[in-house]
Amino acid sequence: MATSAHTTARRVAPIVISTWSFGPVANAAAWPILASGGSSLDAVVAGATAVEDDPTVDSVGVGGFPDASGHVSLDACVMQAPDRCGGVCYLRHYAGAARLARAVMDKTIHVLLAGDGAEAFAQRQGFTPHPTHLLTPEARAAWEAWRTTHDPSEAGQREGVLPPMNVEERYRDARATPSDKFRHAPGAREGNHDTVCLLGIDHTGVLSGCVTTSGLGFKVPGRVGDSPIIGHGLYVDQTAGAAAATGNGELIMGVCGSFLAVELMRAGRTPLEACLAVLDRIISSYAIMPQHQVALIALAPDGRWGAASLKPGFSCCITTPAGQHQHDAQHVMAPRFTS
Ligand code: SD4
Fold it and tell me: Among candidates 183, 214, 199, 121, which has minimal Cα distance to 333?
């Protein structure tokens, strides 16, 4: 069946862009598919799956940090067009959220399946329950350590107190300035990772996106963020472009961050301008706290891309026929706070 994902196909150089420092892991799985003429949808799902399957990544897939009650829950979505999107959320006993999100898109009339229903669907699709409910010994140990200083019943409930962010605090390194007020953000953890978001274009010019996460560490049980929700964590339109978001989902959801970025590109903004404008909207819409971070990546149908974040420390990985590089994204927040 022809879909709107394929009505505007055109020949452009393939590209894949993915978030954070595990981007190279994602792109290593995605790029061979694009380079050999495969589809951008296959590529972004393969890239997301590679990160999900790495148990050392404590913010995506197996090995993700649990919620305040000690249970891991996974969220993911895929998108090519308004009539080609799917997602799963609050998946607690099955790995492979990105592949399952694709199955929702390909095999159902629905967009988003949650919780028990998503897991029943996973079983019907031949997925097998994860033997340890996605919780690795390392993630369990981190949760137990967190419990020694936090009351799980208060997680995310007291005003001004957020669950710890899964944000790489790489801005603590040599590039950080002493005046950076974010250097000692509460909840910051050295070397941690975040949601993996991938945007890609294949040799036929078709855009696809995929986002997958275990969400904020030690979140309130039942909490679902932006990542699996179309228009929030991910939006793709074949004529306007694609965008994906990572960071504090609550800040992204209130402004429909990814949808807004794509609509700004439709209105003529470059991918970078679109990312920066979404961050400006977030800054003007919320009381930004030190532990907040939001980052966006955006990709135009012609292959131009952009990336930006509230705070320093966000990078993304770009792979094209010309090669691969890790890009430190422009950040908007620290200069305003330090001036
Ligand atoms: C969430 N946006 O669940 C995700 C988490 C994330 O960097 O992206 N962290 O809110």
Answer: 183
